[in-house]
Amino acid sequence: MLITQVEAAERFDSVAFSSEIIDGRTTSMYTCYRCPRCGERIQFTRRDFEERAPRRLSNLPSEAALEIDAWAARSALGDAPFLDWVCPACSLPARVYVQPWAGGRHGDHGVKLLTVVECAQEQGQAP
Ligand SMILES: [Zn+2]
Q1: DSSP β-bridge partners for residue 86
Q2: Nearest to residue 12, comparing CAs of 116, 83, 99?
Q3: How much distance in Å is there from the Cα of 3 to the middle of ligand 1?
Q4: Whole-angstrom Cα distance, residue 28 to residue 14?
Q5: How many angstroms is it from 92 CA to the middle of ligand 1?
Q6: pLDDT by residue (tens digit) across 27-80?
Q7: How far is the CA of 31 from the centre of ligand 1 (A)?
Q8: How crowded is residue 47: how many other Cβ atoms within 10 Å of its Cβ?
């Protein structure tokens, strides 16, 4: 297994969601992840990050989940909420760690996507 760690901004169109209204507009409710191996795009909603991530439920193959958990335990992200998925096109297991926040003058809240971790088999990687 080969763990790849990248900034969320390298994989997602948008990495910040919030209830704030900026210039009269709310931030997008959606973001797309682009699989680095096959180019498949997977759409997520703000709700996925706000409601599902804090439950920290993994749906990855157990080997990949263990590898990523071990990686997270060595980094500062061990306790952060996360969302897991497997690419529907090429089966690349991946996880994004997120950071929820709340506060500000208007009691705003939101979530920020921090780091994407992908877990590839050592052989047969994309160039
Ligand atoms: Zn893929």
Answers
A1: 93
A2: 116
A3: 15
A4: 8
A5: 6
A6: 778 999 999 999 999 999 999 999 999 999 999 999 999 999 999 999 989 899
A7: 16
A8: 13
Å from CA of 85 to ligand 1 middle = 11
**pLDDT tens digits, 74-122:** 998 989 999 999 999 999 999 999 999 988 777 888 999 999 999 987 6
Distance 60 CA to ligand 1 centre (A): 14
Answer positive or negative: Cα dihedral of 116, 74, 122, 61: negative
For residue 118, the CA-to-ligand 1 centroid distance in Å is: 11
What is the whole-number distance in angstroms between the Cα of residue 22 and the centre of ligand 1? 34
**10 CA → ligand 1 middle, Å:** 15
DSSP one-letter string for 13-55: S--EEES-EETTEEPPSEEEEE-TTT--EEEEEHHIIIIIGGG
